């Protein structure tokens, strides 16, 4: 596949999204850049990205660090003083590496209307006020920094802390510091802008709403915009102002090594070594969409894929996207074992060489 035209390599991926009638695949390999669309969509069609939002939140964190507005080891309590109960401090870095000890979801989410709408729009009725009211009664599952436990709650809280540190709201701050400087015109957290219709088991879904945790899963984007972002990640020195160039580099730096494997965690991004070279990836899903993005900095290869159907068991679309990325690099994918719900394992951790 490495020697074939890029569009030809991507074409089979369009048929792997079960239940989707709109699929967009964007890729870059060396000097070639392609956005390929299948069904009722175009290069600028917006898709819900789910947890792929977290990679943008990590970039925002790194941008604020580059400006010296926050530090990675700042305690969350510095920006949300009445947030968490006493005990070992939870830092911004803990939130960005899923090592905070916070549960996957905030207290109170799975009660009342949220429980009844779990298969439709479970976060819609859970407000920022509900989140702040729940923080004081939150209990950590483990001491911060000792174990990886994937947490929508944690990255969502990171968005609130960054917004409080810099002033304004998370969507406004993300647009000002990341989206507009990169020229991402199709990307934001607005559920009211036109987007592809989502599907779950063949049924249309309403737009995804997550008002309390936008930094964890509210973003919409397009194949065109993801191609721009991936190109910037592959060549940070060519992108935006100095603080954003520094952030694009910093999000790729390994922070933690997972035991019994060679896998590492960067800022939100998962890193898997492939014959001594890093492959960074993340995926996401809502009740109506599936998303994947990955890149190999050393070979100048990257791929993003969107489908307007909810993730299915074993995540075949995500697996196929990961495999296609590996094939573009000219190497077999091996056993991916990825999931659109969470592709970060729960396990003990140690600091990666050069981490921080």
Automatic annotation (TrEMBL):
<dbReference type="InterPro" id="IPR050491">
    <property type="entry name" value="AmpC-like"/>
</dbReference>
<feature type="region of interest" description="Disordered">
    <location>
        <begin position="337"/>
        <end position="356"/>
    </location>
</feature>
<dbReference type="Pfam" id="PF00144">
    <property type="entry name" value="Beta-lactamase"/>
</dbReference>
<keyword id="KW-0378">Hydrolase</keyword>
<dbReference type="InterPro" id="IPR001466">
    <property type="entry name" value="Beta-lactam-related"/>
</dbReference>
<dbReference type="GO" id="GO:0016787">
    <property type="term" value="F:hydrolase activity"/>
</dbReference>
<dbReference type="InterPro" id="IPR012338">
    <property type="entry name" value="Beta-lactam/transpept-like"/>
</dbReference>
<protein>
    <submittedName>
        <fullName>Serine hydrolase domain-containing protein</fullName>
    </submittedName>
</protein>
<feature type="domain" description="Beta-lactamase-related">
    <location>
        <begin position="18"/>
        <end position="312"/>
    </location>
</feature>
